[in-house]
Each structure stands twice: as structure tokens, then as C-alpha cells.
Design goal:
Length: 215
């Protein structure tokens, strides 16, 4: 990864670490307790593990519930319920890959190398596909659909986070397919200090995320 791409990611990481420091400690307790109860191993890589806890804390802050770090809640209430971390899909993922989708939990005998393989698989899934971003417009449609959950990977929120790192203080227009995604982006904008506008255009929604200094 290039330095210009790494710098905003590191800034985001340390900002989240500071903002959610207390929540990170709280999540660390239940994560390790759950792993011990189920005979699982927690991701041993401090930065990756901490980033997952930041995402869980951020999800809880935005949605009031600790959804899986890999997926934003969608239109299906039953699927949303199953996404609550530790999610109901984790065991199947662990049986298939050795670790859950977000690589928070692994088999009790999973090696360090096994966790690294899971992390590589996850990063390829979320960052290996180029963003459909052109002239400040991000089209989030067309992402791969996770067969177990029926949800896009990466979802609109994860795509927006990447795109904002590229936008560098400029207004970002985002095309999404559902009103739930609009609502999720509105909550995200509030947490990030961005102004937010949305409009229905045909069968899609267009969302503007606007730095407050330029609004």
C-alpha cells in the first residue's frame, strides 16, 4: 500500500482509538470471555484486533447495537439481528475458513499464519476491488453479495470510508440503492462532522457528504 493511502488510514485509526478508548476496553472484556467460553482464539495482532474493536464501538455509537464490523445493517430485520456481534454466521465461517469473516475469532488451534491468511482474505475483499469513483461521485452499486448474509461486500459505508480518504476535504456524492443506506450514511455523517443532503433520483438515492467548512 502506498504511503499516501496509508497516512489517512493511520490517522483514522488513531482518531478512533482516542475517541473510543473506553469502549475498546469494554469490548475487550466480552470478546475474550466469549472466546474462552466457545474454545476460540482471539485475533493476536494488536493493531488489527484494535481496529475491529474501534469498528464495533463505532457501529454501537451510530446504530445503538454492536453489529459485525464487516457489514452495515440493511432492510432485513432478521438478518440484522443475526449480524449482532458475535454474529450468528461466525461458526460457519470458522468451520470453513478457520476464522470468522472479520477475523476477530479463530479456531482454538488457529496459528498466527492462519490469522494472517484471514486478514489478507478480508483486506482483499474490502480493498482489492477498485472503487467506482469518478469526479467526486461514488457509485456503491454492483458490489459482490455475500452468499450467507445476502449483503454487499464491501457495503456502502465501507466504500464511503475509503472514498473520503481519497476526496481529501472535498464534497463526496454517493449513489446507493436503498433508503436504509441513506439513513446509515446520515448517521455516519453526523459522527464525522459532515453536512448531509439526500435526494431520490429514479430508482436510486444520491447522498452528498459535505465538509462543514465548505457547506
Amino acid at each position: 500500500m502506498k504511503l499516501k493511502e496509508m497516512a489517512p488510514m493511520m490517522k483514522e485509526f488513531f482518531s478512533g482509538y482516542i475517541d473510543y478508548h473506553k469502549e475498546i476496553k469494554k469490548h475487550d472484556v466480552w470478546i475474550k470471555k466469549y472466546a474462552a467460553t466457545k474454545g476460540l482464539k482471539v485475533n493476536p495482532h494488536w493493531m488489527f484486533y484494535t481496529n475491529l474493536k474501534i469498528w464495533i464501538a463505532e457501529s454501537e455509537s451510530m446504530f445503538g447495537k454492536r453489529y459485525c464490523p464487516c457489514f452495515e445493517p440493511g432492510e432485513n430485520a432478521e438478518v440484522n439481528k443475526r449480524l449482532l456481534c458475535p454474529c450468528k454466521f461466525a461458526q460457519e465461517d470458522i468451520q470453513k475458513h478457520g476464522s470468522c469473516h472479520c477475523v476477530l475469532f479463530g479456531r482454538g488451534d488457529l496459528t498466527d499464519e492462519g490469522f494472517k491468511e484471514g486478514e489478507t482474505r478480508l483486506m482483499q475483499e474490502y480493498r482489492g476491488t477498485p472503487l467506482n469513483l469518478e469526479n467526486g461521485i461514488l457509485d456503491t452499486r454492483g458490489a459482490h453479495i455475500d452468499p450467507a448474509r445476502g449483503l454487499p461486500v464491501p457495503d456502502s459505508l465501507h466504500q464511503v470510508k475509503r472514498a473520503l480518504n481519497k476526496a481529501r476535504g472535498q464534497t463526496l456524492e454517493v449513489i446507493v440503492e436503498t433508503n436504509v443506506e441513506v439513513e446509515n450514511l446520515g448517521k455516519f455523517a453526523g459522527k464525522q462532522g459532515l453536512n448531509f443532503r439526500s435526494s431520490k433520483v429514479g430508482d436510486t438515492w444520491h447522498v452528498e457528504l459535505i465538509p462543514r467548512a465548505t457547506a
